[in-house]
Design brief:
mainly beta; Ribosomal Protein L25, Chain P; RNA Polymerase Alpha Subunit, Chain A, domain 2; 2 domains; six-stranded mixed barrel; four-stranded mixed beta sheet; 4 helices; 13 strands; 15% helix; elongated
Length: 186
């Protein structure tokens, strides 16, 4: 898992009016949630752009007024009309503590069912996994080679080293659907 450095400043005021004023100044209100409680702070909108608009999942090294900690982005709230960034929520964690995050799935291989004329269909974009952040990969590589025509690959068929898959075992990751051409052959 890659790391992303982000600086923030504690904020004293809360509420709609204060948040609106902060956004007008190019700042985004945010919360850091931990076992000790929540800390309200602000970050520059330009600083979080690369954190939000990517398929990567980052461990965020937060520096709030000189206090550093590790966190993961849990939620980003956007405006309903212009999709302006409204608010961020971060979850604090310790370096040796297991965290739960959604990791993108990448399919690799040439499925047997595709060789027989079928079409490979990816059912999920990401899977929820739990593990120590240094053991969490940037993406989960799933080999689709053994999938035959009309068959699927579910979460229960997957195993990753040093990771626990939290997504339900019955969720289908990928499958090979029969096409009109494959039906005519068979």
């Amino acid at each position: 898992m890659k790391e992303y450095a982000l600086a923030g400043t504690k904020r004293a005021e809360s509420g709609k009016k204060a948040a609106k004023q902060l956004r007008a100044q190019g700042l985004i209100p945010a919360n850091l949630i931990s076992k000790e409680g929540a800390v309200s702070f602000t970050v520059k909108a330009a600083d979080v752009r690369n954190l939000l608009y990517t398929s990567q999942v980052y461990a965020v090294k937060l520096n709030i007024d000189g206090q550093e900690c590790l966190a993961v982005l849990k939620e980003a709230q956007f405006g309903p009309i212009n999709e302006e960034l409204y608010h961020l929520d971060f979850q604090k964690f310790e370096a040796n503590e297991a965290i739960t995050v959604a990791i993108p799935v990448k399919l690799e291989g040439f499925a047997e069912g595709v060789k027989a004329g079928g079409k490979l269909v990816k059912q999920v974009r990401s899977l929820n996994v739990k593990g120590i952040y240094t053991n969490i990969p940037e993406r989960l590589i799933v080999d689709v080679t053994p999938i035959e025509l009309g068959k699927t690959l579910s979460v229960s068929d997957l195993k990753f080293e040093n990771l626990e898959i939290i997504t339900a075992p019955s969720v289908i990751v990928a499958g090979v659907k029969a096409t009109r051409a494959s039906r005519q052959q068979g």
